[in-house]
Amino acid sequence: MTAHSTDLKMLLKDPSLLETRAFVAGEWVDADDGRTFEVRNPARGDVIARVADLSRAEVKRAIEAAQAAMKDWAARTAKDRAKVMRRWFELMMENQDDLGTILTAEQGKPLPEAKGEIAYGASFIEWFGEEAKRVYGETIPGHMADKRITVLRQPIGVVASITPWNFPNAMITRKCGPALAVGCGFVARPAAETPLSALALAVLGERAGLPKGILSVVTSSRSSDIGKEFCENPLIRKLTFTGSTEVGRILLRQAADQVLKCSMELGGNAPFIVFDDADLDAAVEGAMASKFRNNGQTCVCANRIYVQAGVYDEFAKRLAKAVDKLTVGDGLKDGTTTGPLINADAVEKVEEHIADALGRGAQVVTGGKRHDLGGSFFQPTVVTNVPADAKVSTEETFGPLAPLFRFETEEEVVAKANDTIFGLAAYFYARDIGRITRVQESLEYGIVGVNTGIISTEVAPFGGVKQSGLGREGSRHGIEDYLEMKYVCLSV
Ligand SMILES: NC(=O)C1=CN([C@@H]2O[C@H](COP(=O)(O)OP(=O)(O)OC[C@H]3O[C@@H](n4cnc5c(N)ncnc54)[C@H](OP(=O)(O)O)[C@@H]3O)[C@@H](O)[C@H]2O)C=CC1
Ligand SMILES: O=C(O)[C@H](O)CS(=O)(=O)O
């Protein structure tokens, strides 16, 4: 199967899930001025849809509608909101195949991986529908005989969301799940590269019973304009962003004017450390999962692979052998394990990092070039003997490049792993319990995978330290960002 502009609908069991209008205030609308922007299939480069290109005026209407809808939605019981969230979860899973096909068509990841993202995305809707029923307040022993102290937990208000193209479903549900479950209004602006998954999510949310106006999906090619509306509109109480640290800084600066509450899931530079006491086959498996998931386009991908000298050559040989088994191709084609990169810029970033490493003395073990398929396809690549001053040491590649660095001691590698402005995810493989305890405590990261390369789940707090972000998503902690605490002092 391939997704050309005329046949994507033909690939769907329910073609009505392929929506190209924006979802504003409970209505499916074109842009006021009729403008649209193109969505392209990264595997072929052809246009698969033309989507409503909204301006700030339409976004303003969406925000006002969310504010109006919140009154009744927040007044409903958590149990009642949970029923709607549960139905939404069920509809996502019932339509997993179609949602996966739409996601692969616009983002490129292999269909099995896209369907996996749908299940991952749906898990946040399920999880937070349940968590909302456990948002407890508290009473505090009064400080004076005639005072009674209570603490209420209430929805923070209208939430604005800006999300990236690499997980077009799950990055939205990881935010709208908790926000809607506790009673907030939600206005989502998906990446221009991948709006179709967000619109399909809204189709199912409407069918599940979300009240008119409580959720809007404002599609636009003008990300900066929409971001400014989110930061400047006084009805917005919370901005939640997932994307690069560079854009996160821009939004934080803009949000400062209104002292707008922000949560930021930003860039990463994950170290992946293999100690000489590691199970090497397990370490290779973990490195493959962490590095090549979504073709290396995740913020938690292994970005630097440190291997202790005693096992360096053997690990490099086994990793290259595993990489050579990857099958690059169209994500909708059976057997594809590795799709295209999102666009030409992404290809150039990978090439830049490879050229820089080779220029500093590294060697290519496998891959290293654009794929014969052309376009934004790239050969999964392993390079060895990468020096510490290579660009890939400090910059996130966001592509299928596995750079191997050699190290001698535990102290040396922990210092190198921590020597970055980022602090999202880190991984290491070892079996000595003393080493595992020391290293997991010493790594300056929000997430540490020990003898595993995959850490993503709705039940755990996902987020980074340093310049990888602010706040946590998922787990019981992930609901806090969408609640305000109110202290009530009653004089009796
Ligand atoms: N910590 C985490 O969980 C994650 C972090 N990331 C990080 O994001 C990067 C890759 O994603 P990528 O999409 O390229 O990141 P970007 O930061 O470029 O874009 C993220 C989103 O922000 C929008 N955007 C860009 N500029 C502005 C602006 N000035 N104002 C408002 N919105 C804006 C983009 O819209 P448009 O694309 O339409 O311009 C997109 O929707 C990597 O650095 C990766 O590590 C990605 C996913 C998860
Ligand atoms: O966009 C990303 O990189 C995701 O946050 C990674 S994960 O949550 O799918 O692991």
Automatic annotation (TrEMBL):
<dbReference type="InterPro" id="IPR016162">
    <property type="entry name" value="Ald_DH_N"/>
</dbReference>
<dbReference type="GO" id="GO:0009450">
    <property type="term" value="P:gamma-aminobutyric acid catabolic process"/>
</dbReference>
<dbReference type="Pfam" id="PF00171">
    <property type="entry name" value="Aldedh"/>
</dbReference>
<dbReference type="GO" id="GO:0005829">
    <property type="term" value="C:cytosol"/>
</dbReference>
<dbReference type="InterPro" id="IPR016160">
    <property type="entry name" value="Ald_DH_CS_CYS"/>
</dbReference>
<dbReference type="InterPro" id="IPR015590">
    <property type="entry name" value="Aldehyde_DH_dom"/>
</dbReference>
<dbReference type="InterPro" id="IPR010102">
    <property type="entry name" value="Succ_semiAld_DH"/>
</dbReference>
<protein>
    <submittedName>
        <fullName>Succinate semialdehyde dehydrogenase</fullName>
    </submittedName>
</protein>
<keyword id="KW-0560">Oxidoreductase</keyword>
<dbReference type="GO" id="GO:0004777">
    <property type="term" value="F:succinate-semialdehyde dehydrogenase (NAD+) activity"/>
</dbReference>
<comment type="similarity">
    <text>Belongs to the aldehyde dehydrogenase family.</text>
</comment>
<dbReference type="InterPro" id="IPR029510">
    <property type="entry name" value="Ald_DH_CS_GLU"/>
</dbReference>
<feature type="active site">
    <location>
        <position position="265"/>
    </location>
</feature>
<dbReference type="InterPro" id="IPR016161">
    <property type="entry name" value="Ald_DH/histidinol_DH"/>
</dbReference>
<dbReference type="InterPro" id="IPR016163">
    <property type="entry name" value="Ald_DH_C"/>
</dbReference>
<feature type="domain" description="Aldehyde dehydrogenase">
    <location>
        <begin position="28"/>
        <end position="488"/>
    </location>
</feature>
<dbReference type="InterPro" id="IPR050740">
    <property type="entry name" value="Aldehyde_DH_Superfamily"/>
</dbReference>
